[in-house]
Amino acid sequence: MSAPRFAVQYLEKPPEGVGPGQVRSRLRQAFARLPIDHVLLGWDLPPDLEEAAAEETARGGARLFRWQPLLTGDLHTDLPAEWATIGWNGDPVPGHGGVPEFTFVCPNRSAVADFLPERLEAVAARGLYQGVFLDRIRFPSPSPDPASHLACFCPHCVHLAADSGLDLESVRRTLGALLAAPDGCGRLARSLLGEAVEPGTPLEAFLDFRQGSLDRIVAAASRQAAALGLEVGLDCFSPSLTRMVGQNLSTLDGTCKWIKIMAYPRVFGPAGIAFELLGLAEWLVARGLPQAQALGLLAGASRLEIPATLAELRQTGLGAGALRDEIARARELGVKRLLAGLALVAMAGVHESTPDQIRADIAASRMADGLVLSWDLWLTPLTTLDAIRQAWP
Predict the structure, then answer these.
(1) For the CA atoms of 98, 238, 389, 59, what is the dihedral angle to 10 degrees?
(2) In the chain, where the domains are located
(3) What pTM did the predictor assign?
(4) What average pLDDT does the segment 230-248 reach?
C-alpha cells in the first residue's frame, strides 16, 4: 500500500457536547474539499463517536487508522508510576503539563513490553481499523532541562546497557562533567541535535543505545500489528530533533508503511521545532551561555535558520524553509514513504499561522509524498482545506 496523499488527524479529544451527527458532518465537509485517503482517529473517543467516524470514513472511501500513543498513558489507561523514565538526576521525568498523554514510560522495562501488545489487540478487536498510527514512540524530550529530562537511567536500562557493554554510570560521569560548565552544556546540546561533537564517548554510546531500544519496541509493535491485519504509520519528530528523543528515522523506516514527520516550524508545544529549540536555548542561557552564542550553536547543530534573539524566536518561531529543509533531511536519511505534517489548528500560545504562512508551508512540502493535516481536523477552518486543495498539485 502506498503512502497516503492526504491524511487527516481527527479528534485527539472528544469535543464537549458533540454528537455522532456532528462528527460525521465534519468529515463529510472535509471529504468534499480534499481527496482524503486516510483518517487518523484519536484514541480517547467514546464508542458512538468512534463508530460514526468509522462509518463516514468508509463512506468517503478512505482507510481508518487508530491514532495511538505507544509509550504514554491516555484517558483510559493509567500506567503505573514505577514505569516512568528516570533522568540523569535519578528522578522520574515529569510529563509536559503533567498529563498522562505526555508522561513517558521506559521501553526497556519488561512490564512495559508485556503491556504494549494489549493496546494493539484492543484496536484490532474493535473491527473498525485498517491500521495504526503510532505516536509517542520516543523518550521524553530533554529540551526543557537535559540535566533532569535526559532519560532513561532506570535499573532496567542499566542492566540492558551493561549487557551491550555500556556502563551507564560512565554516562552519568560524562554528563556531570559536561553540565559543570557553560561550554560543556553547549557540547551536550549539540550532541542532542545530532552533531558528532563527542565521538566515541559514553554519551554518544548512550544516545545510540536509546535509539536501539526504540527500534526494538517499534519493530515488535509493527510485527504484532501485521499479525493482526493492521498497517503501521509512524508519527516522528522532525529530523533535526530525533536524536534527542531516541528516534532513528533510517531504521524506523523499515518497521512501517510510512512516516509522518512533525516538522512544525511555529508550534510552541511538544514536538514543535520552535518549542524544542526554544527550550534548549533558554536552558543554555540559564546555564551561562550568552544568548547570541546559544542561538548560533543551535542553528549550527540543527542546520536550521533560527531567529537572532530569544524574543523573536518566542514570537515568530521558524519559517517555512525549516519544513522544506527537514523534509530533505528525512529523504537523506532514507525515509521512502514520507508525509509532511502540517500544523493547522489555531490555539493561542501554541500555534497560529496566517494564510500566507500556511501557503508557504504547503509549497515547502512539495518534496513529500503527501500531507498529514495535523492536529486537528475538528479545529481546522474549512477555508484552510480549500487553500490546501488549490495549492497542492
Answers:
(1) -60
(2) 6-391
(3) 0.96
(4) 98
